[in-house]
Amino acid sequence: MAQPTGTTTLQTGHVGLNVTDMERSLQFYLRVFGFQIQAEGKEEAQRWAFLGKDGRLILTLWQQSDSGFNASSAGLHHLSFQVESIDQVNAAERVLRELGADFHYEGVVPHGEGAASGGIFFADPDGTRLEIYAPTGADTAPAPSGAAPTCGFF
């Protein structure tokens, strides 16, 4: 196998999402995830926002789509965010319910049969599939997909 070139240590820098309505998406991501706007372009032809926490860029939004997320197209499957505890997952679920978000499963579910990790699976205003999970505390419910990864089939 060929050796990779360049740096040997990689981590995700940030994720960019196309959105149909910048204001609606901004309000959603700021409220659900507690992001802060780090930079923003407000020109009608080029709306964008850089969102992060503690000075770290996490998510970029680009208003350049005219239709919502399509799960049958190649590309992003889902975007997952890890939190420290199942209590934080439950708190996020309460906010999402207040916002009327669409959930793929009812409540917190494990990542697979017998797994302690798990969380909630839902969609943003454009239908992009999202997950908020904790490494432990989700083993009180059955796994929706049995032994298959829950996050792979929603």
Could you describe the 3D structure shown?
This protein is α/β, with parallel strands linked by helices and 154 residues long. The chain folds into two domains: 13-66, 2,3-Dihydroxybiphenyl 1,2-Dioxygenase, domain 1 (Roll); 78-149, 2,3-Dihydroxybiphenyl 1,2-Dioxygenase, domain 1 (Roll). Helix content is 17%, strand content 31%. The chain has a four-stranded mixed beta sheet, covered by helices on one side. Strands 5-8-7-6 form a four-stranded mixed beta sheet. A hairpin with a 2-residue loop joins strand 3 and strand 4. Helix 1 (22-33) packs antiparallel against helix 2. The mean pLDDT is 93.
What are its keywords?
2 helices, 8 strands, alpha/beta, 154 residues, 2 domains, 2,3-Dihydroxybiphenyl 1,2-Dioxygenase, domain 1, four-stranded mixed beta sheet
Mean pLDDT: 93
Helix content: 10-25%
How are the strands of the largest sheet arranged?
1-4-3-2
Instruction: Please give the radius of gyration in angstroms.
Output: 17 Å
Q: Can you tell me the residue ranges where pLDDT is under 50 for at least 5 consecutive residues?
A: none
Our measurement of the CA-to-CA distance between the termini, rounded to an integer number of angstroms, reads 34 Å
Q: Based on CA inertia axes, which overall geometry fits?
A: globular
What characterizes the major β-sheet? 4 strands, mixed
The CATH class of the largest domain, by name, is: Alpha Beta
- Strand percentage lies at 25-35%
CATH architectural arrangement of the largest domain: Roll
Query: What's the number of structural domains?
Result: 2
At CATH level 3, the topology of the largest domain is: 2,3-Dihydroxybiphenyl 1,2-Dioxygenase, domain 1
Number of helices: 2
Structural class: alpha/beta
